[in-house]
Amino acid sequence: MELCKEFWQIIEKIRKERNLSISLVCEDIISERTYYRYMRSGCEMRFDILSKLSHRLGLDSVEIVKFAFYFNKKDPGITKFLFRLQTKQFSDIEPIYQSILEHKEENLSLQKLLNACIAKYEWIVGKIAKEDYISVLEKSLEYSSAEENNNIFILLTRVLYYEALPDNTRYSAECLAQAILKADFRMGFIFYVIALDCLMYSVLGSEKISIETFRLLTARFEEILELVDIKPFHMQKSLYKAYLHFLDGQIEEMKHPLFLYAMNLSVLFGGESYCQAKKKVEKLFKINLTDFLKEQSETVAIPKHFVFE
Amino acid sequence: MDSLERIRLERKIAIKDLVCDITSRRNYSRFLSDEINISLEVLSKLLNKLYIPFSEFSFYMYNLLMYENINEVYFHELIRKEKYEEAYQKYYPLIQGKQWKTLYSGKTIPIGTLLMKSKLRLISDNEALREMTQILNLENIIGGHIIDDDDIEAMFLYIRICGPQEKEKISAFAYDALTSEKYMKLTGFYEQTITILQLIGLKTLTTKAIITNEDRKRINELTDIALKFHNRTRMGIFDIMLFQTLYEYIKANNIENKYVVFYYVTSIIGSFNEDFVKDHKYAIAKADINMFYECLNDEDFIESNMYERLLANGIM
């Protein structure tokens, strides 16, 4: 009921803002009387009516739904928090972190995941020790059974556990990889992509999963990013593609994705995050990152894209 | 309902378990066969049973709509990238005469079609502009306080052809919408739409015939807003559009700013969107390439946070 009331209020606000009469908005959809009645009482609304009224107001129902959830302060910022944590982008994280701390999530497995993410953040910024983070992870994973791998929140919590303790005997990288490949990525995209990225980054340079599984994970990464234009994830995808070429001994093919990764790493990341990633990549590919960037810019990228005035 | 049923089947949940305490099995079947319409309340409860937030479901449905109308999406992307010939050859035949269904079907696609035709000299600029003006309904947009995806994307195309007076109005609207709290942000793609709005503001200001001191102040202010926003959202291709605009501005006004040069170059050579940068050579002064290498060799700069120095120094 609360949800419907919210939608009615938003529709009415937009109608007034756009200077449209009730009769025009309602024509062939519902009667004016019904409109008034619904608006006052916040009565149940049919999905098809929300959709038709949204279109009459020149909008799509998704715009109204998003407005209701994100801008009427109903969203505690879970996606923002997870995105910033994954990309170690902490410049504006404090209010989001506070909001997540205060948020009481109805979905128990999501709440447990949030507890783990809060602890991970606190460990990264030095508020707690790694042992404390691991103990939160262990608590979050208490009572979860093997078949719950189709719950993306539990799956991501397990991946975080693996990331923190790669030599654990509880969850193997191969099993987690198979669970990720089986999971439905169309719902809870952010949780899925983070699980995928965390696992792949954790196993880079190790032999914890087979090359074939790594290949499948990389292909999945490419598939899910097809219509998503978020640079840090594309950057990671390029790193994994480069690594596959490296493993296959295709050094020439490796250069372009590795260049894209390195160029974006130097733009998007700074401080400790940049230094750690640079060190890892230099060790993995046996290169000097700065020299590689200069050489590739000079011989390939600049001549390919620019014309001198 | 089809989407909900698809998820139920994939998750191997029996109908009786899904509908238990919410609705009857018979009603569920009637929802599926479109005999009756489902209420938001019932839909929301069914989604809860599947651990799917209503907002997430609504995006899932929208993504489905995008996939089902992917030619409309690709057509719009090409027009946005000013690749009119490719849009005309590849996607226009696939969307022509069909009912457009994406978030951009009301204004952006029709305006994009007219813009494409005028750029390819299939219709005159005046003819295109006349029709575009009717579709856009500019006075209505700038008179209200709503930011919506279709209006903003349509304006982004409109400023490529409209006269200086309309540009001035759009510029003032973009600035106000980006600096004031009074606007309702009714966007399905918030990050994308706000970025386009920032580009509208910057493009209309930086390409004015005479740039006043007030304009310069606004350019700095909007650049600051755009950089901080992009620092958070980190979306692809928009940085190319942003830094191309800024690079052209500093060159036209003899402003030296090596950080703008560096980010202009890196946005292009580091683009993940191959289609966006292929078949196009970007203009650059030879001396600016040296500035790029100078920055690349500066370890302190490379280890600094995203846009940190540009934000600290400003554009001028």
Topology:
The complex is a heterodimer of chains A (309) and B (316).
Chain A: H1 2-17, H2 22-26, H3 32-41, H4 47-56, H5 61-71, H6 78-86, H7 93-102, H8 108-124, H9 130-140, H10 152-164, H11 173-182, H12 189-203, H13 211-224, H14 231-247, H15 251-268, H16 271-285, H17 289-305, E1 306-308
Helix pairs in contact in A: 1-3, 1-5, 6-7, 6-12, 8-9, 8-10, 9-10, 10-11, 10-12, 11-12, 11-13, 12-13, 12-14, 13-14, 14-15, 15-17
Chain B: H1 2-10, H2 15-19, H3 25-32, H4 40-49, H5 54-68, H6 70-80, H7 84-95, H8 108-119, H9 125-136, H10 138-143, E1 146-148, H11 149-158, H12 164-179, E2 184-186, H13 190-206, H14 213-233, H15 238-252, H16 258-269, H17 274-277, E3 282-284, H18 286-297, H19 299-302, H20 308-313
Parallel strand pairs in B: 1-2
Helix pairs in contact in B: 5-6, 6-7, 6-8, 7-8, 8-9, 8-11, 9-11, 11-13, 12-13, 13-14, 13-15, 15-16, 16-18
